[in-house]
Amino acid sequence: MESLNQYIDHTLLKPEATEADVDRVVKEAIDNNFYSVMINPYWVSHVHNLLANTSVKTATVIGFPLGANTTNIKVAETNQAIEDGADEVDMVMNIGEFKGGNYQTVQEDIRSVVTAAHKRDTLIKVIIENALLTDDEIAKAADIVAKTGADFVKTSTGFSTKGATAHDVAIMKKAVGDRIQVKAAGGIHSAQDAEDMIKAGATRLGTSASLKIIGK
């Protein structure tokens, strides 16, 4: 297993995060060679500028945290984020439409955002919010995401009833195979948590406990 540092999207999505908080997270990411800094869209331009001339990526969220924005708004938000300097975007699928069995609508919503991101050479992950899904639904949602051409399927926003579990990650990995990658996020607080997610099939981790995970 490579260094845990390069699995980590160092995350700060709290609504009360100040510029000083964002700057601290950026410095931590640079100092510890984390893969990216994950922040809300408002902060993308600022973070992109701070990360210039480093290897750390700028990442943000789309349709966050509910996934209930219209497709046009998600696409516009994606385009704005990329213009502001985002290297990666993590969108939330339309969870209500998925729970209602309207899978084609869900797939078209995701595909529209995937197309917008890929037109600008930007990596895209899709959050399916596992906490609100059954095991069968997790597998179904992961398969839908894979069919859209997204780069990753992601477990959680971190704002629902629970975050990632190794059990959920394993279901997602089995569903997508080698078509796309799996990101685990939410509730990853220790090196053991991180290693469990990776063993289950995750190739990226979203966490705000990054320093604790790497033993700092």
UniProtKB/TrEMBL annotation:
Q: Which Gene3D superfamilies match?
A: Aldolase class I
Has the keyword Heme been applied to this entry? no
Q: Where is the active site?
A: D90, K154, K183
E.C. numbers: 4.1.2.4
Q: Does the keyword Cytoplasm apply?
A: yes
Pathway-wise, it operates in: Carbohydrate degradation; 2-deoxy-D-ribose 1-phosphate degradation; D-glyceraldehyde 3-phosphate and acetaldehyde from 2-deoxy-alpha-D-ribose 1-phosphate: step 2/2
Q: Which CDD domains match?
A: DeoC
**Catalytic activity field:** 2-deoxy-D-ribose 5-phosphate = D-glyceraldehyde 3-phosphate + acetaldehyde
Q: Where in the cell is it found?
A: Cytoplasm
Keyword annotations for this protein, in alphabetical order, are: Cytoplasm, Lyase, Schiff base
- Name the predominant localization: cytoplasm
Tell me the superkingdom of the source: Bacteria
User: What's one Pfam family here?
Assistant: DeoC
Q: Which InterPro entries match?
A: Aldolase_TIM (IPR013785), DeoC (IPR011343), DeoC/FbaB/LacD_aldolase (IPR002915), DeoC_typeI (IPR028581)
Described function: Catalyzes a reversible aldol reaction between acetaldehyde and D-glyceraldehyde 3-phosphate to generate 2-deoxy-D-ribose 5-phosphate.
Q: Which family does it belong to?
A: Belongs to the DeoC/FbaB aldolase family. DeoC type 1 subfamily.
What is the recorded name of this protein?
Deoxyribose-phosphate aldolase
Gene source species: Lentilactobacillus fungorum
Gene designation: deoC_1
